[in-house]
Amino acid sequence: PKIRPATPTVSPRRKSRQIMVGSVPVGGDAPVSVQSMTTTLTSDVNATLQQIAELATSGCQIVRVACPSQDDADALAAIAKKSPIPVIADIHFQPKYVFAAIDAGCAAVRVNPGNIRKFDDKVGEIARAAKGAGVPIRIGVNAGSLDARLLEKYGKATPEALVESALWECSLFEEHDFQDIKISVKHNDPVVMIEAYRQLAAKCDYPLHLGVTEAGPAFQGTIKSAVAFGALLSQGIGDTIRVSLSAPPVEEIKVGNQILESLGLRERGLEIVSCPSCGRAQVDVYTLAERVTAGLQGFPVPLRVAVMGCVVNGPGEAREADLGVASGNGKGQIFVKGQVVKTVPEDQIVETLIEEALKIAEAMGIE
Ligand code: SF4
Fold it and tell me: Which residues are listed as membrane-spanning (predicted)?
């Protein structure tokens, strides 16, 4: 049986060319992918692979590693070989590491136009090496390292400056018949970032990597990223995302995946529809919602579960949910698709919801 009502979709995706980052398609009609960046020393192969494994388990599809030194460049081959997900090498200053990353089997290389004027005379060589290996290049423009020439022209990192920087760098590669490119134009201000990506989306068909750079600690960064990505993705702009948080990278993946789920761009996993509580609540909704979330975490079937603080609005408010509870008088009314199926004491709510969730899974033929 179809448990979940169909989710309305956001605007059609902007038509972008598709590139392959290792096994992950980016752009075109490929699902929007989520990526993060390791915080370990890349030269510490074991620690980096351990963090990549954790990221992959939490739903990261592409991982980027910094490559600021020769020791890091030397570690790339072992990391790229053993990583369960495609590895992108992040190169800021040294063209020689671009070649090292391509030779090491990295799935892509990120370069920063603001930092790589030295690359100008090497672009042809890079383009040939990347093309030969089937390795795409991300042109990663960052407000904090905008090319001095553009900074002078525009006065600061305006959307126009970010876009001009990116397209200028693309043109250098295009001169060498290289178009296996994706672009990012990151800024720490979501308003500037949104405008930059809108302008860029209108001016080229390269796939776009969305990011708000230096978004801040977890709370602020989550909101900035959700606002910016939501505005762009809801208009069909964006092919892969990276949430930047001053927090462990696994948190970035959780936020990124949640943003895609919230926009209906990815199948929703467990979704708790809990009420905010009010003066009518007859249960501690916050604690109950947390217990239900913990009890159903990792459940193999996507579920929308309503946790309502009272029976006045409970079943009615949660009709769209797969199952739920409305509490009152020390009891919980358990309902499936808005119909009350049983009433249990408060301390049995979580286990009863799990039982009902298992029945739903069984009905769907999933064990
Ligand atoms: Fe208030 Fe009940 Fe609505 Fe929760 S479900 S917000 S307790 S009226």
Answer: none
